[in-house]
Amino acid sequence: MGVKRMRYDRSPRKIERWMKEGRGAGRNSTYQPWLTVRDVPSRGKSTRVYGWHTGRVHHFLSQLEEFYFYTLEWRRDILDIREQFPLLPLHETVQIAELLRVDHPRDKKGNLVVMTEDFLITCSGPRGEIIKARSIKPAPELQSRRVWEKLRIAQEYWRRRGTDWGLVTDREIDPILAMNVRQVHAYRDPAALGLDPRQVMPIETVLRQLLHESPRVPHRLVAKKCDDILGLESGTSLAVTWHLIAVRRLEVDMTVPLHPNKPLPLVKREDGGQS
User: Fold this and answer.
1) To 10 degrees, the CA torsion angle through 194, 236, 261, 259?
2) C-alpha 42: how far from chain center
3) Which end of the chain is more exposed for a tag (fewer CB within 10 A), N or C?
4) According to the model, what pLDDT value does residue 41 have?
5) CA Rg, the chain, in Å?
6) pLDDT at position 102, please?
């Protein structure tokens, strides 16, 4: 959660226009974040990523937000991910700030700013959908009293709605898992590889055999051998490997860095074989 440093003022007229545009509304592929990478000069790396679960482009204003997103993408229980979710109506967060005796965020011109939650997540549960709000903050920022004031406003906002709210820092995000998911993320759709899905199966068959025969060989060399055997363009089998991992047909230990110059950290099955 946070109030980001804006490129432009957030006047009442602009807030009204954004609401009419549908920002902050919709679910899954129809959701539009309140803020995009063009609206905010991020402190770190801002990115746009096409989501597996939602089928739309997500906007992240920091690398920490991006990393948290990748950990969500890897979870099987995720139904929807809405980033930069607006805490509306504005008068409610103003009222909460007054009750807490803290200043409500404003822009440089003194206009009240619509606060946003970093992530609003919909998960599947034993009794149906569960919605969770999560604020993402680097641990060092929690030393700031002002940061805590804004977090308290968000916490109370979600408490009133009976929504599970939580704070996530870099200490709770596994960077290796996040980077591994980022590594394979673009390869989930076979079409992105320039391959017909029917072409993946024979490559997978040969890859599995080679991996079984050479479990300690750097995967770059295993994939090259697969390309040579099948007469494929160089790099095809490596791309297929990332695809198989993305769709979980090739199980690997995602807590170990995935790198072409290292052996794949395959997960062993109970029968002693490999996935």
Assistant:
1) 30
2) 16
3) C
4) 67
5) 22
6) 98
Express each pLDDT in 101-157 by its tens digit.
999 999 888 999 999 999 999 999 999 999 999 999 999 999 999 999 999 999 999
The highest-level CATH class for domain 174-275 is: mainly alpha
Structure tokens at 86: 């607006």
DSSP string, 48-105: EEE-TTTSSEEEESSHHHHHHHHHHHT-SSEEEEEEEEE--SHHHHHHHHHHHT-PPP
Overall CATH class of domain 12-173: alpha beta
The helix (run of H) or strand (run of E) holding residue 27 is: none
Region of residue 28 (left: phi > 0; alpha: psi -120 to 50; beta: else) = left
User: Residue ranges of the domains in the chain?
Assistant: 12-173, 174-275
Q: Which of 211, 229, 209 is nearest to 220 (CA)?
A: 211
Q: Does 174-275 match 12-173 at the fold level?
A: no
Output the six-digit token pair for 170.
């870099």
> At 151, is the secondary structure helix, strand, or coil?
helix
